[in-house]
């Protein structure tokens, strides 16, 4: 009854009893995992887990790939893993074998785990979730909680969308106004196109907060991949430092949703500004990957800007698409020189792309196919399967319904390797996939829970488990999994729809008709077809 489904799970005779007599023994190389597991089990065990207790949990290294493990449960528990990540996943599986009540902080027990043998390893290396903390800020403790929930599902990447038109969320010492002015907006639009709420919204993470988030994630084998979105989605930065923009008039941090017109200019001073920002970002985030956005950059201000037009002429570029490409290249070279890899949304393919760059494909799957065939590594974030801000059912009941319908079974049916790539060597370019929780219309952690769960559990199977799908089997395991989520305080969506307090009557959404949506996607990505 494990989610995501392991490679092999068989019953074995006997049972393990978790209680205050349980002990833990770990290879020294697995000390971090042992410390984490001791903490997770502490409400039941009292936290000691000293050697010599009655039932022993052993964490050992074996000849396996780093993320693989074998778990044997009988009178004792043995986890043999290729490395710390594998041991961590084995321990996560062990937690799932416990009764859900054992996951609560309330303690109690003893708890019995029936005998079992599990063999397991992930299918993909990039098992990600994007969290948009720019549109609606999420306080640090809720980000840490979200990391715990990713780790429960054996996901290993948290893509933090830290900057956008509506807020700048990362402290940069050299440019303090980014957070002083850029992290607050005076009010927000209610729903997609409703009245202003008249209430300030904001917040940011200090550098110490981010170090804590990164360390907390690392202890759970999750890499935090930061995103600084450029050159579009930058109105909050321009509000803080007007010299970054294209207009003479000052701007405020944006209060409405949708793709904006305000983008940064392409001056040398602006490139230097964001390279300075990146210097601090690189200090905070050890991730080998840094996301620089590149999505949805409207070009009208560059078309109207004599300075941008001069830049195009000087560089001998064809148009504003190539100007965006040139702009992104300045940062690609900067990151490459510092041993990191640039990740951008699939729009970065439009004007030519630096060789080492990784493409996060979101507008359907054409970007993934195009990028992989051009020799780029790809993360499949297809909005047609993995955008968790899209509504979960048709009809009027979904709270603030947005996008097309992505039901639980639609997410479960997702396959990370696009059909057009299957059988081609380029399929090996697909590093994995990522579900995305955009938060224009998600203004609380409770609503985030409703949108993310249980679809995130379905997603985890698409990146961890084999390519086979068996919806009935998944639903059976999910029925065992939902009480775990409940024990952890997750306000997931019930199959019948929102509970009364999960509804948002009167808050306008923006449901999309599937055919119109596909036509829009096709038009958007037409320049990838050339
Ligand atoms: C995106 O949804 N603009 C990546």
Question: Which helices and strands, and how do they pair?
Answer:
Elements: E1 8-18, E2 23-26, H1 31-45, E3 56-61, E4 69-73, E5 77-81, H2 84-97, E6 111-120, E7 126-132, H3 140-152, E8 157-161, E9 163-164, E10 167-168, H4 177-180, E11 184-185, E12 201-202, H5 207-218, E13 223-230, H6 235-240, H7 268-284, E14 289-293, H8 300-304, H9 306-315, H10 320-337, E15 341-345, E16 358-361, H11 366-373, E17 378-380, H12 383-386, E18 402-403, H13 408-413, E19 430-437, H14 445-452, H15 455-464, H16 471-487, E20 510-511, H17 514-524
Parallel strand pairs: 2-3, 3-5, 7-8, 7-19, 8-13, 13-14, 14-15, 15-16, 16-17, 17-19, 18-20
Antiparallel strand pairs: 1-6, 4-5, 4-6, 9-10, 11-12
Helix pairs in contact: 3-5
Task: Show unreliable segments.
Answer: none
Instruction: Give the domain tally.
Output: 2
Mean pLDDT: 96
Q: From the alpha-carbon coordinates, what is the Rg to the nearest angstrom?
A: 24 Å
CATH architecture of the largest domain: Alpha-Beta Barrel
Q: Can you identify the CATH superfamily of the largest domain?
A: Glycosidases
How helix-rich are the residues, as a percent range? 25-40%
CATH topology of the largest domain: TIM Barrel
Strand content: 15-25%
Query: How many helices in DSSP terms?
Result: 17
Order of strands, main sheet, comes to 7-8-13-14-15-16-17-19
